[in-house]
Design brief:
The chain is of the alpha+beta class. The chain folds into two domains: about 150 residues, no CATH class; about 30 residues. Strand 9 and strand 10 form a beta hairpin. The N terminus is likely disordered.
């Protein structure tokens, strides 16, 4: 696969340098957006600094039992999702939460725990041409620092032309080109036809030999 992120590495079209270590009093929120013909996929990693972990933990551990259950993690993920805005060519793209993984409370208090959120939105019927995707993260702005990037599309018919961010990287505008799918299909048909023709010629040669 061209998109490799599960092992912790992200290949982005334009990736500003991430701080070697985020400050203790900041909530680092790193968003990555993946583009496809029929879907927008969002990955958001949220890492609270040591000094603000005490403010973030109660947002997840709602019953105060010092553990974060899957239900509590999911509830927090839904709250985060309400603060995210994704628009394609000016039209809102509703996001559906697909996964949330919460670290231990101890890891968050140590500044090493990252909440991982994944969501997706359907964008069927995207026509060929230049498209514009706008993303904005409005979650906990008073204590947060942000990163936002587009991943290199897996689909060869899509090409990211540029990314424009606001100074805080709360928002990013991604402009990308969508090529007609028939061009790629035609190219594959031509390649396949050429391969079949070459194979037929090679098989026919012994029959034509004297």
């Amino acid at each position: 696969m061209r998109k490799i992120f599960l092992a912790g590495m992200v290949f982005a079209v334009t990736m500003p340098a991430e701080p070697a270590a985020h400050r203790l009093d900041e909530y680092l929120q790193a968003a990555r957006l993946s583009l496809a013909h029929d879907r927008i996929t969002l990955e958001l990693d949220l890492t609270p600094g040591v000094n603000i972990a005490s403010a973030i933990v109660p947002l997840l551990d709602r019953d105060g039992d010092h553990t974060i259950s899957p239900a509590e993690a999911g509830a927090y993920g839904q709250e985060v999702l309400k603060d995210l805005v994704v628009e394609l060519d000016g039209h809102l793209v509703p996001l559906t939460l697909t996964r949330v993984e919460a670290p231990s409370i101890e890891a968050m208090r140590d500044g090493s725990g990252t909440i991982q959120l994944r969501a997706a939105g359907n964008v069927e019927g995207v026509s060929a041409g230049r498209r514009r995707l706008d993303f904005r993260n409005n979650h906990q702005p008073e204590m947060s620092v942000y990163l936002a990037n587009a991943l290199i599309p897996e689909d060869a018919d899509l090409h990211v032309a540029g990314q424009t961010r606001d100074p805080r990287q709360q928002g990013v505008r991604i402009e990308y080109d969508v090529r007609p799918r028939w061009r790629a299909r035609l190219l594959w048909l031509l390649v396949a036809a050429a391969a079949v023709s070459t194979l037929m010629v090679r098989r026919a040669r012994p029959l034509l030999a004297p």
